Each structure stands twice: as C-alpha cells, then as structure tokens.
C-alpha cells in the first residue's frame, strides 16, 4: 500500500512496537510501503531518535544482505520507579494479607495493564542477554511469564506438578520446598527445551526460593542454561535463601498479622539494572 509519509511513520512505528526483538529486513518495509530504501532508512532514523528520547527502546540496525532492523524495548528509570511504586502501594493494602504472611496477588496479576508494565520492566533488565525461552510454574506466575515473553519475542514453557498425556514424554524431578521443607515433584515435556537453550525463570512470589531452585535443577536436566531469574515479590522471612542471583521488583519487608500491616519496599531491580 502506498501511504503518505505521516501514515507510513505511524504504521512503521506500530509494526516495530508489535514485533520486539525480531530482525526485520528493510526490503520488507520497502515492499510494504512501496517506498525507496533511502526513505525507509530516514524514517527509521527519526523513529530511533524518538524511541531513545522517550526511553521506550532503541532500534538496532544490522548491515548486510541478511540484515535489517530490530526493536529492543526498554523502560526509562522514571517509568520503572513509577510502576514499582504503584506495585508497592497495591501490595501494602491490608486487605491483601493472607495467613502465613502471604499476599493475595490474583487481582494484580489479573490486571492486564499492570502485568504488561511488569513484563516491560523484566524484559528491559534482561534484554541484553540471549534468551530462548521463558519458564514459570503452573501458578499465578503464568500471566507474568507471557508478558515478559511477549516483549522478548520468545516462547513460554510451564512447569507442572505432574505430567499430561497431551504433552508426550516428560522429565520429572523431586525438589525440596524452601518454606515447608516438603519433597515435591515438577515435570516438563521433553520437547519444551532444547539442549543449550538459555532460559529465563519468572515467578510471582519467592520466599526461600525452593520452587525456583527446583526449576534450575530441571533446566539442568535438559542440559540447558539459566539466563536469569525475575521475581515480582520476594519475602524477607528469615529463611535460608536457596537462590542468590535474581532480579526482584518488590520486597516484602515486614508483616504484622495482628495489626494487619504490610511493609513493602523496592526490590533489587535498580541495582541489577545499573550493574
């Protein structure tokens, strides 16, 4: 379709935003807009400048016959602070408190706008890594994992407590839950992860980290690698931490069940972002 430049710029920007981490040949845009390659390059230069100015990402150009342009999403520090403060305000609502010091998170994880913002935060801090797959367990972390995977343009694999006939043969391991010290099982279809794949683990809530430790062991069974770990809420409950290298958005610093008071602070996101 032949568009005026203003319309072409809008469509080009929308296309890039909807296809993050995907290398797109310039020839595709030349054919799509029936415009000269020099015109497309000039448009991309303007978009790149505006993306970086607004802190929403950057455009990476790859030269050569097999080259093209790739949009890498990012989040400005100001936007990240605003989102994390919003998370803290929501988490400190006393009506969210559950027995045992857990927090009710279903309403937050069911909010698509908030989940997409969280996905952008995690994808931004891990965007410099080569990630092939996002992994999570079959709990409330699933929407978070899909939000991150959408921004990174990679598939999601879901670890379950038992195998399913529809998934074919599986790999199963036993692991010790960090908080309850119970032996539990997790399973994943053999076709889910390829050898030497780089896997990003995403979880909604981490106490001691037993579940994440189990996922790490499962990844090793596939002869794959842990590229990173992202946690929405980490808890400081005095238990021995089984996982050390992770990125958390918020930290549950204290809970008073009698007074129904919840204290939440920033996680280590900004330290990891700057390292």
TrEMBL record:
Keywords: DNA-binding, Transcription, Transcription regulation
One Pfam family here: PuR_N
Listed InterPro entries: PRTase-like, PRTase_dom, Pur/Pyrimidine_PRTase, PuR_N, PurR_Bsub, WH-like_DNA-bd_sf, WH_DNA-bd_sf
Domain Bacterial purine repressor N-terminal positions: 4-73
Alphabetical list of Gene3D superfamilies matching this protein: 3.40.50.2020, Winged helix-like DNA-binding domain superfamily/Winged helix DNA-binding domain (1.10.10.10)
Annotated CDD domains: PRTases_typeI (cd06223)
Keyword tRNA processing in record: no
A GO BP annotation: negative regulation of DNA-templated transcription
Domain Phosphoribosyltransferase span(s) in chain numbering: 111-250
NCBIfam families: purR_Bsub
Subunit structure: Homodimer.
Family membership noted in the UniProt record: Belongs to the purine/pyrimidine phosphoribosyltransferase family. PurR subfamily.
Protein name: Pur operon repressor
Organism encoding this protein: Fictibacillus macauensis ZFHKF-1
């Amino acid at each position: 379709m032949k568009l005026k430049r203003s319309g072409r710029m809008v469509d080009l920007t929308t296309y890039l935003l909807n296809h993050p981490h995907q290398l797109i040949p310039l020839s595709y845009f030349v054919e799509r807009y029936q415009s000269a390659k020099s015109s497309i390059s000039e448009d991309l230069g303007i978009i790149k400048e505006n993306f970086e100015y607004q802190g929403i990402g950057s455009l990476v150009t790859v030269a050569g016959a097999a080259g093209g342009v790739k949009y890498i999403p990012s989040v400005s520090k100001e936007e990240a602070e605003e989102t994390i403060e919003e998370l803290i305000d929501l988490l400190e609502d006393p009506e969210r408190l559950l027995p045992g010091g857990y927090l009710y998170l279903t309403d937050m994880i069911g909010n698509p706008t908030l989940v997409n913002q969280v996905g952008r935060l995690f994808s931004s801090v891990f965007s410099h890594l080569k990630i092939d797959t996002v992994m999570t367990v079959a709990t409330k972390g699933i929407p978070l994992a899909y939000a991150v995977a959408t921004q990174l343009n990679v598939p999601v694999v879901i670890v379950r407590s038992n195998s399913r006939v529809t998934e074919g043969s599986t790999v199963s391991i036993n692991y010790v839950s960090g908080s309850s010290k119970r032996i539990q099982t997790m399973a994943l279809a053999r076709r889910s992860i390829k050898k030497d794949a780089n896997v990003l683990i995403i979880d909604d809530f981490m106490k001691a980290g037993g579940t994440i430790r189990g996922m790490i062991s499962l990844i090793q069974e596939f002869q794959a690698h842990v590229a990173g770990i992202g946690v929405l809420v980490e808890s400081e409950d005095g238990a021995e931490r089984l996982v050390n290298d992770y990125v958390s958005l918020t930290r549950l610093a204290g809970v008073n069940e009698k007074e129904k008071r919840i204290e939440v602070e920033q996680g280590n996101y900004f330290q990891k972002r700057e390292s």
